[in-house]
Specification:
With 370 residues, the protein is α/β, with parallel strands linked by helices. A hairpin with a 5-residue loop joins strand 7 and strand 8. Helix 2 crosses helix 3, helix 6 runs parallel beside helix 9 and helix 14 crosses helix 15. GO terms for molecular function: asparagine synthase (glutamine-hydrolyzing) activity; ATP binding.
């Protein structure tokens, strides 16, 4: 495998070497990937994307640099001969049944992670929910950005305005319109290699917020990614036995199932942000936070009445009460990105009766045919 100039991202070679030798899946980093001692590696949650091109005997962090890129599975080590093995798997630590102890562990892990973010050149992607508010609380003097469709105050914009006022933060609203969507969709698709409606809808508001932050002179954007997966933020983990979207039949089992989707999801976000001109910073995905989350009992993850229970309790006294308890929509819906992408597709003749009408429209935009 040929190195591309930068060997390891997210950790030093000694840490990666030690993790390989010990088999420790959470060696105290926020994720890593690259080449160490002639071996390619990608951490257990795939927080840093890494692509291989076996036909060209090449690899890289950016799939656009390769002829036939393949995303390396998380937790994998590839030796100099090209042989692959799973070096790390998601750990199963002992469950902490004492609620106060478990919540204290989450609070300590989260606060340490968000407070160690270097504020130089940093901005925060801010939706007004508890996740981004916790991230913002760690860097109190940096600006916050929220994206929303122009001309109609979106759920995320309204929530961000209220939260920013409660936290006395500098909020910068990025309004995007149909022309912006048409321009950005091909750029996102080229950067990520993804054209499905869900991925594009999620990526659009991230891209617009990051693009404006970059234009304002910031080169890093702190995000709250990982909180929903780690802490039981999805509705489908509440009653998994009766929810077709998960295979597990327990809250903890469903949460672990959702956590295992991160290695596929995160490259979309990382590559989108980099294409917009910023480097992502995801403190809620640090190993110490992952470890604390994996130890939570089911009733501190999600119930019929509340989700992300431990994280919300850990946020007491850190963020204002209305922000701590606020519910928010998924970013593609809370910003109206998905709604307006669907509207554009229908205006272009891709009707809802057609199979994957938005995906067809995205493909046409990428091909320059719409």
């Amino acid at each position: 495998m040929a190195p591309d100039g930068t060997t390891i991202r997210g950790a030093d070679a000694a840490t990666v070497r030690s993790a390989i030798e010990s088999g420790d899946p959470l060696p105290g980093t926020a994720g890593f990937a690259g080449e160490a001692d002639g071996r390619l590696v990608r951490d257990v949650l795939g927080r840093e994307p890494l692509y291989v091109d076996a036909a060209a005997d090449d690899w890289g962090f950016d799939p656009t640099d390769l002829t036939d890129p393949e995303l390396l599975h998380a937790g994998t080590v590839v030796d100099a001969a090209g042989d692959r093995r799973e070096a790390w798997s998601l750990p199963t630590p002992t469950v902490e049944t004492a609620h106060e102890v478990a919540v204290d562990a989450v609070r300590e892990a989260v606060l340490e992670s968000v407070r160690e973010s270097d504020p130089a050149g940093l901005a925060v992607a801010f939706s007004g929910g508890v996740d981004s508010a916790l991230v913002a609380a760690g860097v109190p003097d940096v600006p916050c950005y929220v994206a929303g469709f122009a001309g109609a105050e979106s759920h995320d914009e309204a929530a961000a305005r209220e939260a920013a006022a409660a936290m006395d933060r500098d909020l910068r609203v990025v309004a995007f319109d149909h022309d912006d969507i048409v321009r950005a969709v091909p750029e996102i698709a080229r950067a990520t290699g993804r054209t499905n409606a869900m991925d594009v809808g999620i990526a659009l508001p991230l891209y617009f917020a990051a693009e404006q932050a970059s234009a304002d002179g910031f080169d890093r954007l702190a995000v709250g990614q990982g909180a929903d997966e780690l802490f039981g933020g999805y509705r489908k983990v509440v009653d998994p036995a009766s929810d077709h979207r998960v295979d597990a039949d327990t809250v903890r089992g469903a949460t672990r199932e959702v956590i295992r989707t991160l290695p596929h999801q995160l490259p979309r976000d990382v590559l989108t942000l980099r294409a917009a001109g910023v480097e992502p910073v995801a403190p809620l995905l640090h190993d110490r936070v992952v470890d604390a989350a994996l130890r939570l009992p089911a009733d501190l993850l999600a119930t019929d009445d509340e989700r992300k229970i431990a994280l919300r309790r850990a946020a007491e006294g850190v963020v204002p009460e209305p922000v701590r308890t606020a519910e928010k929509k998924a970013v593609q819906y809370g910003t109206y990105a998905a709604r307006e992408l669907d509207r554009l597709a229908r205006q272009a003749g891709y009707k809802r009766r057609m199979e994957d009408h938005v995906g067809q429209y995205v493909d046409a935009l990428v091909a320059g045919e719409a």
